[in-house]
Every structure is written in C-alpha cells, then in structure tokens.
C-alpha cells in the first residue's frame, strides 16, 4: 500500500519586502523528501485558520531579527488553533536565538528542519533551487524606497555565507567567515525562472557580492548574454568596491543600477571595532570613483555606536558632505544604531568595556556614556518617523 506523504504547512514572516527565500528553500527540501507542502507568506497573505487546523506539521520562518516577534505571534496562533500540530521555527534568526526560543517558547529549532518532519536525514545543499512555484509571484513584492520600485524585482542569491568577519554581523555569527558558492547553472536556472515570471530587475541579496574575483563576474556575464534587458543591484563592502572597481564599473555596462555598500561611519575607531577593512581616508577614493565613473552607490551607515560622541558624529557627517557623499545617502541612515544580538561577536571584547548594556529578550540595548548622544538619537528617530533601511537582508 502506498504511504501517505507527510504534509507540511510553511508559514513565512517578514523578509525585507522580498520573496521569502528562507521558506522557498525549505519547501523545496521538503518536496525533495516526498512531502506535500503549502507555503503561506504571512507578510503579504492573510492566514486561513482552516489551513492551520488541517496540517499536522507546521514550520514558521525567522529569517531576520525583525521577524522574530511576528514568528512568536504566529506560533501562538498556531498553538491555539491546532494544539496537536508538530511545530518548528527555522531560519537564520531562529538558529541565532535558539536557546531563548527553545527555553521561553518550548518550540523546536531543529538543525535538519525537513528531517524533523519526515524522520529522514536531509543533507543541506547550498545549490538547492528555491521553490518559488509555491510563493506568490514577484509582482506581490514591492521594494520600498525609490531605487527599484519601478521594476518587478526578483531576489536571487549566488552564495551562502560571507568571507568577512565584521564583528556586528549576524552572517559572521552564523557562517564564521565561510562561503559556499552556488554553481553558475543553478543561478542561471533561477534567473531564467525569474524572467519567465515577469522579473525585470534582479536584486542579488548575497550579503557580499565579491567574495572572490571570479564567481559573480561570471554570473553577470552569463546573465547579460542571455538577458541584456535585465537590471540588477548588488551589495559589497567599501574595501571590495575599491579593490575590484574595474569589475564593478563593468557591471554598470551590463545593467547594474546601484551598489549598496556599508560605509558604517567615517571614524577609524568605529571602522576598527566593526572590522570593516578600510579607513576613513579611503572614502575620498570612493567619492572620487563615484564622481569620475558615474557608478551609482547606495551607502548605508551605523551612525550611532558607543564609540563616537555627538561632536564626532557631527564632524563625520560634515566630512561626508565635504567629499560629496551626503547627497547620495538616504536621510534615514542618520538614525541607524548599532544592534547587539545575543551572540554578537562584540560582546566580551574591549570595544564594549565600560558600556552599559541591558539584556532584552533577543539581544542587548546599550547606552552611550555621553547622554547627549542618546538624546540626539531619540530626537532624530522621532523627527524621521521611521523609514526603510537595509544594508543587506540578513539582520
Ligand atoms: S557585514 Fe557584510 S561583509 Fe561584513 S561579515 Fe556581514 S555580510 Fe559579510
């Protein structure tokens, strides 16, 4: 007699206004293990309560720190509607907050999520093609801000992890500087699917697009040969942008619209603490590169850190204005603040010595030794009234 397949309901939460790849990858893995899968992206779809009652197995994604609260609310809803369901949380920020989530919410965070439901061991394959057929189409995801909101955007990853060890970064906390490169043919398969389904712009969401000098330029060449009409954007560190400037300039001849790069803050103490691999004076070269080549750069900042006082913040901002970068920086970047997760690599280092920390459920709040700085932060946040701010889609 044929066995009844395991059915799993995958609920996705906020994934930075993009198609939820965390859920789509699990869905593919589950299908490869013989499961029947239904994916609901609760960020853009309402959740049918009947559906929750009908599934014995339910997985809830936690791809970002901003999705933890929603995931916990969904967990409550699921438990109330279907107390017998086997439930797991999954995704980068479920793993990063495993201890807190497991102890405070008594929920499983399995390392092998598909295996948790099927009872079969699953091997993690970084070349897996996300199951986008189970998601709503690209048109349902409208990227905020003015950079690409005129285009139908598909988000695609060419790697997993990142070679760098920026101390504040959750990618480093998880990947520990390791990178897994996707095969060219797998990335091209995803691009082909995106184009067939209406995508006009590819947002490469690798937290670092230039982990090495050859992998992604080969992808851009292949993409341009097959789909010269596509535009795209990438993310890279300032030092990579300067080191591989010729490759990045060439991207703009092949459809690149903009490059997102984390300046963080023009102060060497900040750059050293965060291990950003460049010095403040290098920003002059970045400004010159932008001016002379016309490449479009979307800088992101962490304006408020424990290492700069009010005078240094204002001086840093003045410096950015003098070298001509202010006009390309989104004003929301003047309100950004260092985030400390529970396993931040900054904790326990001399950089946080003497800094007052208060533990929260999933991280730490910090106070600046100079109250004026926190006051300036509050004033700016209240004047700004919120806004979308992304350096990558991992935190
Ligand atoms: S901040 Fe970016 S470049 Fe640095 S470790 Fe994280 S992902 Fe890599």
UniProtKB/TrEMBL annotation:
Gene Ontology terms: cellular component: cytosol
Q: Where is the Radical SAM core domain?
A: 148-380
Q: InterPro entries, per this entry?
A: BchE-like, Elp3/MiaA/NifB-like_rSAM, rSAM, rSAM_horseshoe, rSAM_sf
- GO MF annotations, alphabetized: catalytic activity; iron-sulfur cluster binding; metal ion binding
Please tell me whether the keyword Metal-binding is annotated for this protein: yes
- In Swiss-Prot or TrEMBL terms, this protein is called Radical SAM core domain-containing protein
- Which coenzymes or cofactors are required? [4Fe-4S] cluster
Q: Which UniProt keywords apply?
A: Iron, Iron-sulfur, Metal-binding, S-adenosyl-L-methionine
- Spell out the Pfam families in the cross-references: Radical_SAM
SUPFAM superfamilies, per database record: Radical SAM enzymes
Specify the taxonomic lineage.
Bacteria, Pseudomonadati, Pseudomonadota, Gammaproteobacteria, Vibrionales
Per its UniProt record, what PROSITE patterns does this chain match?
RADICAL_SAM (PS51918)
